[in-house]
Amino acid sequence: MQKSLVIALIIAVVASTASIYLYDKCVQAETKYSLLRIEYLSLLEERGKYVEQQKSLAERLQNCTKMLEKAAEERRDAERDVEELKDLISTNPERWTVRLEGSIVERLDKVKRAIEDSLNSPIISKFAEMIVVSDAVYLNGKRFSFDYVEDEAMLKEKDAIVNPEWFLIHRVGDCDDVAAAMAAVMKVKGYDVRFCVGQREGESGDSKHAWVRIGDEDVDYRYCVNRVCEMEVGYFGNIAEKCVEI
Q: Where in the chain are the domains?
């Protein structure tokens, strides 16, 4: 009887010890599993970030490639335009002048005929194709500019205009000349064009200024630096005395 009790106690102690040991191992396994799971989730998150970064880099690379292709295409277009412009310049169209005499209506009528006579010119068509109109008038990515020279100095006339083709090639003249050329170009580009005569905001006197009006905006030069004037587009407060539709 005592022997059986001793054996039972021994078995109970062994079983208890084994249970504690197994429980400890189980806790260790669960702890290790939790740590491994946390590490796995962390690695999974890092992998997700890496994949997103790879995707972002791929998109940026694709965008850069498109930008480079576009820049190369624009460069080719610009080089082609320059070559075509050189060809146009080499034609060196004959200069003819129209004296602006009589009333303001008579003068505008002469300007209108001169502009309309130039609309079928390949020079006007090519400039209309190359010129871009936004906040200013751009030619080959640069603001269109001209050298301001009075009629008396260039034409030995008090008031006259040159044919728009000649002006676009040489880009020398006064407000009448540039306005006539811009009117021809804008008309070929498809704008509703009016050639206007009047005064700039804040100016007074007998001196008249000429500019082009497309829709509600004016195509005009505002400032000249060393007699080099850049063409801008917008509302500048010009007061039109009379306009003629082209």
A: 41-90, 92-245
State the DSSP string of 18-82.
HHHHHHHHHHHHHHHHHHHHHHHHHHHHHHHHHHHHHHHHHHHHHHHHHHHHHHHHHHHHHHHHH
Q: Is the pTM of this model over 0.70?
A: no
CA angle 166, 172, 174 (to 5 degrees): 110
Distance CA 136, CA 134 (A): 5
pLDDT tens string, the chain, 246 residues long: the values are 556 665 666 666 555 665 666 666 676 777 777 777 787 777 777 887 877 888 887 888 788 888 888 877 777 777 777 677 677 767 778 888 999 989 999 999 999 999 999 999 999 999 999 999 999 999 988 999 999 999 888 878 788 999 999 999 999 999 999 999 999 999 999 999 999 999 998 777 677 899 999 999 999 999 899 999 999 999 999 999 999 999
